[in-house]
């Protein structure tokens, strides 16, 4: 058999871009995108993406160029997930919540040739470009207009001279029969995503066509997504390309319900209006839904996939009580989507609700496209599968990034001994299920004991008055470090229901080993968040540092640390 080798017939590069043509053939008249009063079919979406790709190519964009997009979850954002890579260019979605300085740095770093700019981000992008060095070539700009938004926000038509065209005018100049640029190799770069920007220098993560294909198919299989679902875009598409669902919903011929901005009341309204079946969101989205005044029980089950941070069991329990079926997964920008999922076992349905929620809060097992996921100690050895021994989460598989753009040192540091080192701290349970306990920098070492801030947070979320919680280390003269809890409370609480610091501590003492109980509780109106909605623990760590150490004369707890 040695003479049998790959040929052009059996070695076509894998890419999720092929999904669109197939679906337009099967479901040509089925709604592909619904946004306010705008409705497109899959046949129309296929033609529009080809037409737009043709127009982009006419601007001089070629294979390997970077094309950036700064837009919310609107039809144009969805179409660009196909149109940009159809040209052979690399799609770079930029978070709309970033400031002008970071956006400027990203555009400079990736040498973007063309930027599609939503009308709401117009001034932000122009400010970002004004920060370019004087002799630096600036990218071409295309303005995405939105009549509904412009009318509501009373947006003027000024400041458009810097844009060479509008989105629809550019598309009108293209050829709907354009022959799109197929990748030479499935390893060709297709996507460039920057990490969340919690530091001053977010990294540019490069993914291939192959990786995007694998993570898309993987997620559809793991979540058991049926044909023709109704998918509501509550997860930003700029966040790791919406966890691969722009291509995934095309693959199964579903309908994309687009919404410009997350609002719990609007989300519940769209669920009822369009009979939504599936949606995604970080745990903060689940928290917002369950705390909404409009959170009436659903008439039909809605499947919601959550990831991005370990979800507190209490939040999962409240979400499912409304009629959502929650699936939980884990991934990073560097994996292009979810690569670990808490695959559910039927026997767990017989357990009490609180125990089901606890099991579902674990991250789970590797998806089919991942070769291996493990938790290792300092020397690279697998930790005990006891659900208690902490180690760093490592993985290998087809979804892992090619590397960091222009950062060979950073790439080298996270690829070691054939593994991708995530920087996340976790445990492996006896049944082989992974549970994330913290980021490595967030582990608190108190009295020589490593404790997980996530575990403390999970307990805090169980308090009926707590809206959000985050726990960081505070220096302690006796223990070295002790947990410092930052808490925001739910709105509309009656005065008698507003807890004191002492009451929060006592609540934790009843539900945690004593050495894990916060010795400091700080109430805040709102916790600081990153541009992707994650709580900014580095900000809270600085606040805790500025408080100074807890004095030794405060002394240890009167009860033993058990």
Description:
- It is a single chain.
- The protein has 562 residues and is an alpha/beta fold.
- Among the domains are: 12-206, Rossmann fold; 443-554, GMP Synthetase, Chain A, domain 3, CATH 3.30.300.
- The chain contains 18 helices and 27 strands.
- A 9-stranded mixed beta sheet has the order 2-1-11-10-12-13-14-15-16, sandwiched between helices. Strands 4-3-5-6-7 form a 5-stranded parallel beta sheet. Strands 17, 18, 20, 21 and 22 form a 5-stranded antiparallel beta sheet that branches.
- The protein is globular.
- The chain starts with 17 loop residues before the first helix and ends in a 15-residue tail after the last helix.
- Residues 555-562 have low confidence and may be disordered.
- GO terms for molecular function: 2-methylbutanoate-CoA ligase activity; 4-coumarate-CoA ligase activity; ATP binding; medium-chain fatty acid-CoA ligase activity; propionate-CoA ligase activity.
- InterPro entries: AMP-bd_C, AMP-bd_C_sf, AMP-binding_CS, AMP-dep_synth/lig_dom, ANL_N_sf.
- Residues 455-534 form the AMP-binding enzyme C-terminal domain.
- Residues 21-405 form the AMP-dependent synthetase/ligase domain.
